[in-house]
Amino acid sequence: MYTDHVRYPNIADATGAFIYARLQRGKATVATAYPPKEIKAWAGRLRHMAQGEDPADLPHIASPTARKPAPREVFAYVIHEGKIRAPAGAMALIGALGEKS
């Protein structure tokens, strides 16, 4: 599980057959919960995760293992304090995932 939360660290070590990501640092003052640059960054990370790769810009606990990347399902949620901008954030993330990187 990945979590983008103030109190809980982002740890990019993938240990299962699927990824569960919770984007929890969204702000009610931003129309899409996250600024466009951060939406784009998360879309890139999620693409890497779906391809079985680890995002290089998130911290890891263990050393990367030598393994062949295998595709996996990724479930990402935009949920944050107040939650008012979470739906718009999720829609922006879906839009960014549909763009070519």
Task: Write structural notes for this entry.
The chain is 28% helix and 15% strand. It has 101 residues and is an alpha/beta fold. It has one domain (2-98). Strands 1-2-3 form a three-stranded parallel beta sheet. The chain is globular and about 40 Å long.
Range of strand content: 5-15%
Describe the sheet with the most strands. 3 strands, parallel
Estimate the helix proportion, in percent: 25-40%
Overall geometry: globular
Q: What string, H for helix and E for strand, traces the elements in order?
A: EEHEH
Distance between the termini: 24 Å
As for the number of domains, it is 1
Give the structural class. alpha/beta
Across the major sheet, the strand order is 1-2-3
Number of strands: 3
What is the overall pLDDT average? 85
Rg from alpha-carbon coordinates: 13 Å
Total of DSSP H or I helical runs spanning 4+ residues: 2
- Which spans have pLDDT < 50 for at least 5 consecutive residues? none
List the helices and strands and how they pair.
Blueprint: E1 2-4, E2 18-23, H1 36-50, E3 73-78, H2 86-98
Parallel strand pairs: 1-2, 2-3
Helix pairs in contact: 1-2
List the keywords:
101 residues, three-stranded parallel β-sheet, globular, alpha/beta
